[in-house]
Amino acid sequence: MMLKIIAGKFPLLLFYTLIPLAIQQDIRSLRISTIPNGQFSCINTTCLPYSTIIVSKILYCQTNCLANIQCQAAHFHRITHQCQMFSYFTWSSASMVPDMNSITLVVSDDTRVPSIWIPNWIYNGDGETGPCATNYDLVHPTGWNYDGPITQVQYGVSNANQNMMTPGPSDRGKCHFYGFNSTSATTMWQIVDMTTLIDPARINNQIVRFNLSAWLGGYARDEDATGISLTFLTQANQTVGNTTTLGPVSPAGRNNVTSLVYRQSSGQVPIGARLFKLLVTVTRAAGSTNDGDVDNIALRFYC
Ligand SMILES: *[C@@H]1O[C@H](CO)[C@@H](O)[C@H](O)[C@H]1NC(C)=O
Ligand SMILES: *[C@@H]1O[C@H](CO)[C@@H](O)[C@H](O)[C@H]1NC(C)=O
Ligand SMILES: *[C@@H]1O[C@H](CO)[C@@H](O)[C@H](O)[C@H]1NC(C)=O
Ligand SMILES: *[C@@H]1O[C@H](CO)[C@@H](O)[C@H](O)[C@H]1NC(C)=O
Ligand SMILES: *[C@@H]1O[C@H](CO)[C@@H](O)[C@H](O)[C@H]1NC(C)=O
Ligand SMILES: *[C@@H]1O[C@H](CO)[C@@H](O)[C@H](O)[C@H]1NC(C)=O
What region holds the Apple domain (predicted)? Predict the structure, then answer.
Protein backbone atom coordinates (compact mmCIF):
# COMPACT_ATOMS: atom_id res chain seq x y z
CA MET A 1 0.00 0.00 0.00
CA MET A 2 1.06 3.60 -0.45
CA LEU A 3 0.47 6.37 1.98
CA LYS A 4 1.65 9.90 1.40
CA ILE A 5 2.10 13.02 3.41
CA ILE A 6 -0.17 15.66 1.92
CA ALA A 7 2.46 18.33 2.36
CA GLY A 8 0.88 21.25 0.53
CA LYS A 9 -2.59 20.98 2.00
CA PHE A 10 -1.46 20.14 5.43
CA PRO A 11 1.74 21.60 6.82
CA LEU A 12 3.23 18.94 9.01
CA LEU A 13 3.83 20.58 12.33
CA LEU A 14 5.85 18.64 14.80
CA PHE A 15 6.06 19.43 18.44
CA TYR A 16 8.21 17.43 20.76
CA THR A 17 6.46 17.25 24.06
CA LEU A 18 8.57 16.71 27.11
CA ILE A 19 6.39 15.04 29.66
CA PRO A 20 7.69 16.36 32.94
CA LEU A 21 8.09 13.81 35.67
CA ALA A 22 7.03 15.56 38.81
CA ILE A 23 9.32 13.28 40.70
CA GLN A 24 11.59 15.79 42.32
CA GLN A 25 14.63 16.66 40.21
CA ASP A 26 14.58 13.54 38.08
CA ILE A 27 15.95 14.56 34.71
CA ARG A 28 14.38 11.68 32.85
CA SER A 29 11.60 12.53 30.48
CA LEU A 30 9.60 10.79 27.83
CA ARG A 31 9.43 12.19 24.35
CA ILE A 32 6.57 11.93 21.96
CA SER A 33 5.95 14.07 18.89
CA THR A 34 2.59 15.76 18.59
CA ILE A 35 0.77 16.83 15.45
CA PRO A 36 -2.08 19.11 16.44
CA ASN A 37 -5.25 19.26 14.38
CA GLY A 38 -4.39 16.23 12.34
CA GLN A 39 -5.17 12.62 11.91
CA PHE A 40 -3.31 10.16 9.73
CA SER A 41 -5.28 7.96 7.42
CA CYS A 42 -4.54 4.57 6.03
CA ILE A 43 -5.63 2.57 3.06
CA ASN A 44 -5.40 -0.94 4.38
CA THR A 45 -6.65 -2.52 7.56
CA THR A 46 -3.26 -2.75 9.28
CA CYS A 47 -3.86 0.87 10.20
CA LEU A 48 -6.95 0.17 12.26
CA PRO A 49 -6.35 0.94 15.92
CA TYR A 50 -5.50 -2.18 17.89
CA SER A 51 -7.02 -0.57 20.96
CA THR A 52 -9.35 2.33 21.75
CA ILE A 53 -9.75 3.64 25.25
CA ILE A 54 -11.40 6.69 26.78
CA VAL A 55 -9.06 8.89 28.78
CA SER A 56 -9.68 12.11 30.68
CA LYS A 57 -6.73 14.01 29.23
CA ILE A 58 -4.23 13.83 26.39
CA LEU A 59 -1.36 13.05 28.77
CA TYR A 60 -2.95 9.69 29.58
CA CYS A 61 -3.26 8.91 25.86
CA GLN A 62 0.47 9.60 25.55
CA THR A 63 1.49 7.56 28.58
CA ASN A 64 -0.80 4.65 27.70
CA CYS A 65 0.77 4.57 24.24
CA LEU A 66 4.30 4.78 25.63
CA ALA A 67 3.53 1.99 28.06
CA ASN A 68 2.58 -0.43 25.29
CA ILE A 69 5.38 -1.77 23.16
CA GLN A 70 3.11 -2.28 20.14
CA CYS A 71 1.88 1.32 20.16
CA GLN A 72 3.69 3.40 17.58
CA ALA A 73 1.18 6.20 17.23
CA ALA A 74 -2.08 7.38 18.75
CA HIS A 75 -4.95 9.74 18.06
CA PHE A 76 -6.55 11.71 20.82
CA HIS A 77 -9.97 13.15 20.02
CA ARG A 78 -10.68 16.36 21.93
CA ILE A 79 -14.47 15.95 22.00
CA THR A 80 -14.97 12.22 22.53
CA HIS A 81 -11.73 11.78 24.51
CA GLN A 82 -11.13 8.60 22.56
CA CYS A 83 -7.54 7.49 22.51
CA GLN A 84 -6.91 5.20 19.55
CA MET A 85 -3.64 3.32 19.53
CA PHE A 86 -1.96 2.08 16.38
CA SER A 87 0.74 -0.52 16.02
CA TYR A 88 1.87 0.53 12.56
CA PHE A 89 3.30 3.93 11.75
CA THR A 90 6.19 5.30 9.72
CA TRP A 91 6.74 8.89 8.69
CA SER A 92 7.37 7.88 5.08
CA SER A 93 3.98 6.26 4.76
CA ALA A 94 1.69 8.58 6.69
CA SER A 95 -1.16 10.49 5.14
CA MET A 96 -2.21 13.38 7.35
CA VAL A 97 -5.76 14.62 7.15
CA PRO A 98 -6.65 17.91 8.85
CA ASP A 99 -9.05 17.47 11.75
CA MET A 100 -9.48 20.25 14.28
CA ASN A 101 -10.56 17.82 16.96
CA SER A 102 -7.75 15.31 16.66
CA ILE A 103 -4.24 15.26 17.93
CA THR A 104 -1.86 12.68 16.58
CA LEU A 105 0.93 11.37 18.75
CA VAL A 106 3.95 9.52 17.44
CA VAL A 107 6.35 7.69 19.69
CA SER A 108 10.05 8.38 19.25
CA ASP A 109 11.71 4.99 19.27
CA ASP A 110 14.76 6.17 21.14
CA THR A 111 12.74 7.34 24.10
CA ARG A 112 10.28 4.50 24.42
CA VAL A 113 9.98 2.84 27.80
CA PRO A 114 8.54 -0.61 27.10
CA SER A 115 5.81 -1.99 29.36
CA ILE A 116 6.44 0.53 32.09
CA TRP A 117 6.12 4.25 32.43
CA ILE A 118 9.55 4.98 33.79
CA PRO A 119 12.28 2.60 34.89
CA ASN A 120 12.27 3.56 38.55
CA TRP A 121 9.78 5.71 40.46
CA ILE A 122 12.07 6.03 43.46
CA TYR A 123 14.20 9.13 43.24
CA ASN A 124 17.79 8.41 44.23
CA GLY A 125 16.95 4.82 45.18
CA ASP A 126 20.58 3.90 44.57
CA GLY A 127 22.22 6.60 46.70
CA GLU A 128 24.19 7.86 43.72
CA THR A 129 22.54 11.29 43.55
CA GLY A 130 23.99 14.04 45.72
CA PRO A 131 26.90 13.86 48.15
CA CYS A 132 27.66 10.72 50.12
CA ALA A 133 29.84 10.33 53.20
CA THR A 134 33.44 9.29 52.67
CA ASN A 135 34.03 8.96 56.40
CA TYR A 136 31.99 8.25 59.50
CA ASP A 137 29.99 11.43 58.91
CA LEU A 138 26.29 12.21 58.78
CA VAL A 139 25.13 12.90 55.20
CA HIS A 140 21.36 13.01 54.78
CA PRO A 141 20.04 11.09 51.74
CA THR A 142 19.42 13.42 48.79
CA GLY A 143 15.76 13.71 47.73
CA TRP A 144 14.33 11.73 50.65
CA ASN A 145 12.36 12.82 53.69
CA TYR A 146 14.08 11.41 56.76
CA ASP A 147 13.82 11.04 60.50
CA GLY A 148 17.08 10.49 62.35
CA PRO A 149 20.63 10.16 61.07
CA ILE A 150 20.14 7.73 58.18
CA THR A 151 23.14 8.38 55.95
CA GLN A 152 24.14 8.15 52.32
CA VAL A 153 27.66 6.70 52.41
CA GLN A 154 30.36 5.39 50.11
CA TYR A 155 31.14 1.69 49.87
CA GLY A 156 34.39 1.10 51.72
CA VAL A 157 33.71 3.33 54.73
CA SER A 158 34.37 0.68 57.39
CA ASN A 159 31.69 1.68 59.92
CA ALA A 160 29.08 1.42 57.19
CA ASN A 161 29.93 -2.28 56.73
CA GLN A 162 29.69 -2.76 52.97
CA ASN A 163 32.56 -2.41 50.53
CA MET A 164 33.20 -3.17 46.88
CA MET A 165 33.99 -6.82 47.71
CA THR A 166 31.10 -7.70 50.07
CA PRO A 167 28.28 -9.67 48.41
CA GLY A 168 25.61 -7.39 46.96
CA PRO A 169 24.45 -5.86 43.69
CA SER A 170 26.87 -5.92 40.76
CA ASP A 171 25.62 -2.46 39.80
CA ARG A 172 26.14 -1.05 43.29
CA GLY A 173 27.76 2.19 42.13
CA LYS A 174 29.70 4.17 44.72
CA CYS A 175 27.19 4.69 47.53
CA HIS A 176 24.46 3.07 49.62
CA PHE A 177 22.33 3.97 52.66
CA TYR A 178 23.19 3.16 56.27
CA GLY A 179 21.67 3.65 59.77
CA PHE A 180 24.71 5.54 61.08
CA ASN A 181 24.65 6.44 64.82
CA SER A 182 20.93 6.22 65.53
CA THR A 183 20.13 4.88 68.98
CA SER A 184 16.97 3.08 67.85
CA ALA A 185 15.39 3.30 64.40
CA THR A 186 15.99 5.82 61.65
CA THR A 187 13.80 6.18 58.58
CA MET A 188 13.59 7.78 55.16
CA TRP A 189 10.57 7.95 52.85
CA GLN A 190 9.11 9.30 49.63
CA ILE A 191 5.47 10.07 48.83
CA VAL A 192 4.85 10.22 45.09
CA ASP A 193 1.76 11.04 43.03
CA MET A 194 1.39 8.22 40.48
CA THR A 195 -1.20 10.12 38.43
CA THR A 196 1.44 12.41 36.95
CA LEU A 197 1.88 9.58 34.43
CA ILE A 198 -0.55 6.81 35.26
CA ASP A 199 -4.19 7.18 34.28
CA PRO A 200 -6.31 6.77 37.47
CA ALA A 201 -8.92 4.96 35.35
CA ARG A 202 -6.33 2.22 34.62
CA ILE A 203 -5.68 1.86 38.35
CA ASN A 204 -9.39 1.59 39.09
CA ASN A 205 -9.75 -1.01 36.32
CA GLN A 206 -7.17 -3.05 38.28
CA ILE A 207 -4.72 -3.44 35.44
CA VAL A 208 -1.74 -1.59 36.91
CA ARG A 209 0.80 -3.78 38.69
CA PHE A 210 3.93 -2.90 40.58
CA ASN A 211 7.28 -4.53 41.14
CA LEU A 212 9.29 -3.49 44.19
CA SER A 213 12.89 -4.57 44.76
CA ALA A 214 15.90 -3.65 46.88
CA TRP A 215 19.14 -4.98 48.29
CA LEU A 216 19.00 -5.17 52.09
CA GLY A 217 21.62 -6.19 54.60
CA GLY A 218 23.92 -5.49 57.48
CA TYR A 219 26.97 -6.53 59.42
CA ALA A 220 28.02 -10.12 60.28
CA ARG A 221 25.91 -11.48 63.22
CA ASP A 222 24.68 -8.04 64.21
CA GLU A 223 20.87 -8.04 64.44
CA ASP A 224 20.57 -4.46 63.15
CA ALA A 225 18.39 -4.70 60.07
CA THR A 226 16.72 -2.79 57.27
CA GLY A 227 13.16 -3.17 56.04
CA ILE A 228 11.06 -1.46 53.38
CA SER A 229 7.32 -0.95 53.17
CA LEU A 230 5.18 0.23 50.29
CA THR A 231 1.72 1.61 50.96
CA PHE A 232 -0.77 3.21 48.62
CA LEU A 233 -2.74 6.34 49.41
CA THR A 234 -5.93 7.85 48.08
CA GLN A 235 -6.16 11.48 46.92
CA ALA A 236 -7.16 12.28 50.51
CA ASN A 237 -3.99 10.58 51.82
CA GLN A 238 -5.90 7.63 53.27
CA THR A 239 -4.13 4.26 53.17
CA VAL A 240 -5.73 1.89 50.67
CA GLY A 241 -5.08 -1.80 49.94
CA ASN A 242 -2.30 -3.99 51.32
CA THR A 243 1.08 -2.95 52.60
CA THR A 244 3.94 -4.67 50.81
CA THR A 245 7.14 -5.27 52.75
CA LEU A 246 10.69 -6.30 51.90
CA GLY A 247 12.75 -7.57 54.84
CA PRO A 248 13.82 -6.69 57.42
CA VAL A 249 16.70 -9.01 56.57
CA SER A 250 18.10 -10.63 59.73
CA PRO A 251 21.61 -12.10 60.05
CA ALA A 252 20.05 -15.51 59.28
CA GLY A 253 18.71 -14.04 56.04
CA ARG A 254 22.28 -13.35 54.93
CA ASN A 255 24.01 -16.34 56.57
CA ASN A 256 25.70 -14.09 59.15
CA VAL A 257 27.76 -12.60 56.32
CA THR A 258 28.26 -8.84 55.95
CA SER A 259 26.36 -8.37 52.71
CA LEU A 260 23.34 -6.99 50.87
CA VAL A 261 20.75 -9.53 49.67
CA TYR A 262 18.10 -9.07 46.97
CA ARG A 263 14.44 -8.94 47.93
CA GLN A 264 11.54 -8.48 45.54
CA SER A 265 7.77 -8.38 45.65
CA SER A 266 5.07 -7.60 43.14
CA GLY A 267 1.36 -6.97 43.27
CA GLN A 268 -1.56 -4.95 42.02
CA VAL A 269 -2.08 -1.24 42.62
CA PRO A 270 -5.38 -1.13 44.57
CA ILE A 271 -8.53 0.64 43.42
CA GLY A 272 -8.53 4.24 44.57
CA ALA A 273 -4.75 4.52 44.92
CA ARG A 274 -3.31 7.81 43.65
CA LEU A 275 -0.04 8.13 45.56
CA PHE A 276 2.42 5.72 47.08
CA LYS A 277 4.57 5.97 50.17
CA LEU A 278 7.86 4.09 50.18
CA LEU A 279 9.34 3.86 53.68
CA VAL A 280 12.80 2.56 54.61
CA THR A 281 13.39 1.69 58.28
CA VAL A 282 16.83 0.87 59.68
CA THR A 283 16.57 -0.55 63.19
CA ARG A 284 19.37 -0.87 65.71
CA ALA A 285 19.35 -3.95 67.95
CA ALA A 286 22.90 -4.10 69.27
CA GLY A 287 26.31 -2.46 69.17
CA SER A 288 27.25 1.21 69.11
CA THR A 289 26.14 1.94 65.54
CA ASN A 290 23.04 1.12 63.53
CA ASP A 291 24.40 -1.36 61.02
CA GLY A 292 21.46 -1.84 58.67
CA ASP A 293 22.23 -1.11 55.02
CA VAL A 294 20.23 -0.78 51.81
CA ASP A 295 20.91 -0.04 48.15
CA ASN A 296 19.25 -0.06 44.71
CA ILE A 297 15.64 0.48 45.80
CA ALA A 298 13.44 0.22 42.70
CA LEU A 299 9.71 0.52 42.08
CA ARG A 300 8.27 -0.15 38.63
CA PHE A 301 4.72 -0.07 37.34
CA TYR A 302 3.32 -2.29 34.60
CA CYS A 303 0.10 -2.46 32.67
C1 LIG B 1 -0.77 -2.87 4.74
O2 LIG B 1 0.31 -1.97 4.77
C3 LIG B 1 1.49 -2.44 5.44
C4 LIG B 1 2.50 -1.32 5.45
O5 LIG B 1 2.76 -0.82 4.19
C6 LIG B 1 2.00 -3.66 4.71
O7 LIG B 1 3.14 -4.16 5.40
C8 LIG B 1 0.92 -4.71 4.68
O9 LIG B 1 1.34 -5.82 3.93
C10 LIG B 1 -0.37 -4.15 4.06
N11 LIG B 1 -1.44 -5.13 4.20
C12 LIG B 1 -2.29 -5.42 3.22
C13 LIG B 1 -3.35 -6.41 3.54
O14 LIG B 1 -2.21 -4.89 2.12
C1 LIG C 1 25.28 11.28 65.56
O2 LIG C 1 26.18 12.04 64.78
C3 LIG C 1 25.80 13.39 64.62
C4 LIG C 1 26.75 14.03 63.63
O5 LIG C 1 28.07 13.68 63.90
C6 LIG C 1 25.77 14.09 65.96
O7 LIG C 1 25.36 15.44 65.81
C8 LIG C 1 24.81 13.35 66.87
O9 LIG C 1 24.84 13.90 68.18
C10 LIG C 1 25.15 11.88 66.95
N11 LIG C 1 24.08 11.20 67.65
C12 LIG C 1 24.31 10.22 68.50
C13 LIG C 1 23.11 9.60 69.15
O14 LIG C 1 25.44 9.81 68.74
C1 LIG D 1 10.40 -7.58 38.92
O2 LIG D 1 11.63 -7.02 38.49
C3 LIG D 1 12.72 -7.91 38.56
C4 LIG D 1 13.95 -7.17 38.11
O5 LIG D 1 14.16 -6.06 38.89
C6 LIG D 1 12.46 -9.12 37.70
O7 LIG D 1 13.50 -10.04 37.89
C8 LIG D 1 11.15 -9.75 38.07
O9 LIG D 1 10.85 -10.78 37.16
C10 LIG D 1 10.03 -8.74 38.05
N11 LIG D 1 8.82 -9.38 38.51
C12 LIG D 1 7.66 -9.20 37.92
C13 LIG D 1 6.51 -9.91 38.55
O14 LIG D 1 7.54 -8.50 36.93
C1 LIG E 1 -1.41 14.68 51.42
O2 LIG E 1 -0.12 14.72 51.98
C3 LIG E 1 0.78 15.58 51.32
C4 LIG E 1 2.12 15.50 52.01
O5 LIG E 1 2.45 14.22 52.32
C6 LIG E 1 0.28 17.01 51.33
O7 LIG E 1 1.14 17.82 50.56
C8 LIG E 1 -1.13 17.06 50.75
O9 LIG E 1 -1.63 18.35 50.89
C10 LIG E 1 -2.04 16.08 51.47
N11 LIG E 1 -3.34 16.05 50.82
C12 LIG E 1 -4.47 16.04 51.52
C13 LIG E 1 -5.74 16.02 50.71
O14 LIG E 1 -4.48 16.02 52.74
C1 LIG F 1 24.59 -17.31 62.68
O2 LIG F 1 24.97 -16.95 63.98
C3 LIG F 1 24.15 -17.47 65.00
C4 LIG F 1 24.64 -16.95 66.35
O5 LIG F 1 24.65 -15.56 66.35
C6 LIG F 1 24.20 -18.99 64.97
O7 LIG F 1 23.31 -19.54 65.93
C8 LIG F 1 23.82 -19.48 63.59
O9 LIG F 1 23.99 -20.89 63.51
C10 LIG F 1 24.66 -18.82 62.53
N11 LIG F 1 24.16 -19.20 61.23
C12 LIG F 1 24.96 -19.47 60.22
C13 LIG F 1 24.32 -19.84 58.92
O14 LIG F 1 26.19 -19.43 60.30
C1 LIG G 1 -4.39 -8.05 49.60
O2 LIG G 1 -4.05 -9.22 50.32
C3 LIG G 1 -5.07 -10.20 50.31
C4 LIG G 1 -4.64 -11.33 51.22
O5 LIG G 1 -3.34 -11.76 50.91
C6 LIG G 1 -5.31 -10.66 48.88
O7 LIG G 1 -6.34 -11.59 48.83
C8 LIG G 1 -5.69 -9.45 48.02
O9 LIG G 1 -5.81 -9.85 46.68
C10 LIG G 1 -4.65 -8.36 48.15
N11 LIG G 1 -5.11 -7.17 47.46
C12 LIG G 1 -4.45 -6.64 46.43
C13 LIG G 1 -5.06 -5.39 45.85
O14 LIG G 1 -3.39 -7.09 45.99
Answer: 53-104
